[in-house]
Amino acid sequence: MLTLYDHPRSGNCYKVRLFLALIGQDYQSCFVDVLARKNQTEAFERISAFQQVPALVDGGLSIWDSHAILLHLAHQYAPQWLAPPPRLGAMHAWISVSANEIANSLQPLRLTHVVGNAEAAHHLGVSESLLDVPGMERRTARVLGRMDKRLAQTRWLAGGDVPTVADIACYGYAALAEEAAIDITAYPALAAWRQRIQQLPGYVPPGS
């Protein structure tokens, strides 16, 4: 049985829960209260090197980082979610967008709205005075604009007729855009892509 170390409000945890639901893979969830710093223990560090959620235990293997977990699950249980060689590079490029551009824009911007600037600064490892919310807003508009442009050209981020793990990686926080005070109607192709994901068999919404 897989064990997912999880927090219900985390977008990174949500993308893993969503993927597990889409591939029909059973797991048990272990709640980690990161707001109460319950992740900052030596025991949890043995599971997750940076004491972050999500983390997955699969047999004797511990995997941390949401994108590493998604790729592990796809390789191990759902290879149909991996792009074939002609589109493999595009899949990895959009996973990188999730790990970099989204993680440095929409993800922290949403955090400031959900937990406030002081708690967001703590999780981001900066002082509150250095929290650049206007910069987050500009970067968020840029990355959502680029995603919208891509999705106006193709149904799925890596191209092709079916989604890949890249779509789930980027969807995790795109699904929560309204919690960052984003008007998703400004990005019609991205909004349509979100609806396509919501129509996939096994889909579960954020918070579930």
TrEMBL record:
Domain GST C-terminal: 84-208
Gene Ontology terms, MF aspect: oxidoreductase activity
Enzyme class, spelled out: oxidoreductase
Organism superkingdom: Bacteria
Keywords: Oxidoreductase
Domain GST N-terminal: 1-81
Annotated family: Belongs to the GST superfamily.
Cited PANTHER family: GLUTATHIONE S-TRANSFERASE-RELATED, HYPOTHETICAL GLUTATHIONE S-TRANSFERASE LIKE PROTEIN
Official protein name in the record: Disulfide-bond oxidoreductase YfcG
